[in-house]
Amino acid sequence: MSLPAGAVIGPYEVVGWLGAGGMGEVYRARDARLDRDVAIKLVAGPSVPESSRVDRFTQEARAAGQLNHPNILVVYDIGTHDGLPYIVSELLDGESLRRRIEGGALATRKAVDYARQIAEGLAAAHDKGIVHRDLKPDNLFITTEGRVKILDFGLAKLTLAVEGPAKNPTEDTEVGAVLGTVGYMSPEQVRGEHVDPRSDLFSFGVIFHEMLTGHRAFTRATAADTMAAILKEEPSAALSGVAPQALERIVMRCLEKTREARFQSARDLAFGLEGLSDTPAPAARRPNPPRPSRQRPWAWLALGAILSVIALVLVAWTPWRGVTPPVPLRLSAQLGA
To answer: C-alpha angle with apex 178: 42 to 155, nearest 5 degrees?
Structure first.
C-alpha cells in the first residue's frame, strides 16, 4: 500500500515516502496542530498473515511507547488508517548505521562512542522488561548530530508483563524460533530457546565487531551456515591489531556462546564503554611536557646571596684600591636581578 503526497492519515498529511522499515512503510508527514514534521509508519506487505502482522505492529507501538530515552526513537501517537495501524514518531535526519559502515570499518573512537550510546539505549529498554530481539545496523540510526537512535521494536518481547497478562511461554519460544535477522541472532535465538536481555548483548557484540573490522562476524554463504557459525565458530575477522586489548575483551565477552558468560546487563556494558570512550588509544598518547621547576627562582636568589657573602669577605681581606667594587659583587648583583 503506497500513499501519495497529500494523503491524509488521521490528523496528519503525507508529504512524501521515506522508505520501508521492519513490518511497514515509512512516510514523512505534517502535523498541522503542532506545526511539525513527523514520521508515520504504516503496516504494509503480505509477508506474514494479516492478523499476525497487525499484532506484531501493535506490540511495537506498545513497547516503544513505554520508552523515554535519548537513544531510542520517540513515539508520539498511534492510530488506524483503513483498518491498518500506524505509529507516529519523531522525524530523524541522518542515515542508518548500515549505510554508515558500508564503506568499511569506523574509527575506533567513533565506534566506541556509537557502541556506548547503543548500550545505554538497550539498558533503558531492558529496565522496562523489553528485549529488542532484532538488533542490527539497519535498526540503528545515526543523526546528523551524531546521536544513535534504536528503531523498530517490531519484534520486541515484553519479558515483564508491565501491562496486561503475560503470554504463554511456549508461544513466545515458538515465535522466537522464527523471528530475528540471521547473522545477528544470538545462539539461543538460533536454537529457539527463551530470550532475555543478554540475547540483545550478543547481537550488540556482532554489530560492534562489524563497526571495528568492517566485516560481518558470522555471515556465511547460506542461512544454515550462518546459524551454524553463530553456534560453534569464532568471528570471521580477528580484532587483534584492530582494537586495543581492553576493547577486544569487551567485544568477545558479548559474543560468548553461553549467555551466563556475557555481560549480565547492558548497564554494566555501557559503564565499561564509558570508561574506554574517555581514554585515547595508546598510539595517540603523548608524553606530558616537563613542568617548569617552581624552585628555580629561589635557587638563583640563594646563589646570589652566597656570592654576596663571598664578595664581602673578599672586601674585608683585600686592601682598599679605590671606589671600584670587586668583580664578584657585580656578578652577585647580576644574579640577584
So the answer is: 40
Could you tell me the residue range of the domain that residue 147 belongs to? Answer: 94-281
Angle at 308 between CA 302 and CA 310, to 5 degrees: 110
Q: The domain spanning residue 257 has which CATH number?
A: 1.10.510.10
Q: Is 152 designated active site?
A: no
To 10 degrees, what angle do helices 108-127 and 197-213 make? 170
Domain finish residue from 35, 68, 90: 90
**201 in any annotated domain:** yes
Phi, psi of 72 (to 5 degrees): -130, 135
331: Cα within 13 Å, side-chain hemisphere: 11
CA distance 12 to 7: 8
pLDDT digits (tens, 9 = 90+) for 80-133: 888 888 889 999 999 999 999 999 999 999 999 999 999 999 999 999 889 999
Catalytic residue among 134, 138, 172, 225: 134
Asked whether the beta carbons of 95 and 125 are under 8 A apart, the reply is: no
**pTM for this prediction:** 0.74
